[in-house]
Amino acid sequence: MDIQVTNxxxxxxxxxxxxxxxxxxxxNTIYGLLGRNGAGxxxxxxxxxxxxxxxxxxxxVDGQLNKNHDQALGRMYLMSEANLYPPRxxxxxxxxxxxxxxxxxxxxxxxxxxxxxxxxxxVRVNKLSTGYRSIMKLIVALAVxxxxxxLDEPTLGxxxxxxxxxxxxxxxxxxxxxxxxxxxxxLIEEIANMVERVFVLQNGQLTVDDSTEAILAQxxxxxxxxxxxxxxxxxxxxxxxxxxxxxxxxxxYGPLIADRPIPDTVTVDHIDLQKxxxxxxxxxxxxxxx
Amino acid sequence: MRFKAAFHYQLKSDVQALLWFYxxxxxxxxxxxxxMWLLFDRSSAxxxxxxxxxxxxxxxxxxxxxxxxxxxFDGFKVLIQNGIGRKTYFWSKAAVMATIIIAxxxxxxxxxxxxxxxxxxxxxxxxxxxxxxxxxxxxxxxGLITFLITVLFMFCLTMTAMFAGSVLALFSRRTQLILLxxxxxxxxxxxxxxAAIDLPRIWQFTWLSTLAEWVSGYHPNVQAGTFNAGAPLIxxxxxxxxxxxxxxxxxxxLKYPR
Lengths: 290, 258
Hints:
The complex is a heterodimer of chains A (290) and B (258).
Chain A: E1 3-12, E2 15-25, E3 30-35, H1 41-48, E4 56-61, E5 64-65, H2 70-73, E6 76-79, H3 91-102, H4 107-117, H5 130-143, E7 148-152, H6 160-176, E8 180-184, H7 188-191, E9 197-202, E10 205-211, H8 212-217, E11 219-224, H9 226-233, E12 238-244, E13 247-253, E14 267-270, H10 273-281
Parallel strand pairs in A: 3-8, 3-9, 6-7, 7-8
Antiparallel strand pairs in A: 1-2, 1-4, 4-5, 9-10, 11-13, 11-14, 12-13
Chain B: H1 2-40, H2 48-51, H3 56-70, H4 73-81, H5 86-119, H6 129-132, H7 139-169, H8 173-196, H9 199-203, H10 207-216, H11 230-251
Helix pairs in contact in B: 1-3, 1-5, 3-5, 3-7, 5-7, 7-11
């Protein structure tokens, strides 16, 4: 079972939020959905789960249009900042509601996770702090039996301990019951080690869709005196620059010129996902540079 | 399968809300006047007839159906969060409302029987008894027809509330507020304007007046309880069909965030 997104466009008034997005979400994979504020990440999630109807384009879940298709929508869960649960319900009632409407929900796991996160299931949703509301929804996301879990800013309001616990539980949950997680977060370094594939959205367009390994393998920081660095990186896909005192850095996304010797004054390093993302989506780099 | 789950969830929460409506209705209409009498007016005898309306349960049911029929967005957002689409949401809500109307009208009829037997024999058992209570020679058949017309009327009323609520659900809270405040003000102004041009006199000669008479089953030789029962049944079904289609179409446009 996969999700195929074809030519997906969403326009709000005169603002084009997503433009001709094409992507495939494979089964049993952890994705990172990266993008700056307003890039269209939440809109993409809302379109995948049919909370919004697209202006044009399609979302196919296992070959079937997701539009008002209960069978397709019932295979997905979206955890977002918005609280769509009845505000006066107790946490335990939200679990029961999810079990009733989705049909499959691991109550035992939910109970266990409540203990681990120190969440009292008798508390009403509208009495929970922002962090505990996120925790409640994360517990639902981990305990509901669906094939695709979309997590939009899952760690919003969570302290460092709870964030670490969540990532640990996510990996455990994934290994016990493999399925697809698509995680959108600004805390890229925290998910960098777990995401297998990355989508980068920029100004409503999908600019990167590749495996994390392949992306990082072709991302370089070339450091040294400016003249040597620019000579070495000439003809490559430079996505950004930095100047650190007399040291100059060119960030390159894509292959280096293989037969060009590396000058002694120049060092070539791979960059991490966070740095790559910042460079790709900064004013200097961006979609045009990819 | 998912329709059943959506239906059960909504039925459970709506029935709970309806029971609270009954509690508050009884408290507001019966208990508070009784307490006021006990506290301040012991000089006169307590008169149950004066405080217990014939339409007590009907009033509560009608207010509930308008309020909960019109409340579209809360139900939609819970179901879409749980992977249930707009079509299932609409049909399950319509089915819940239909179930509540039928059960509620049975309660109204039982309450009417109690009222006539215990409180005031001049009262009525069914809401439209005065129009259709003698529609046929058989009191049982006439009673059943009156019950059907009452249920159909409540279906139409509820679907109208669902339509209005669905249209409102397309707008932001701010726009909703403007519409909810603005429309009654506009109607109020129109009412004054209509009074100024003596609309009731003009009304008698318009096709609307003729339509209203036909819809109610009025005829020149009409007497109490002998209105033509076929007319409201046919017109009610047509209206219900049109409103159901319109509400369904609007429901397919629901979205989050608005």
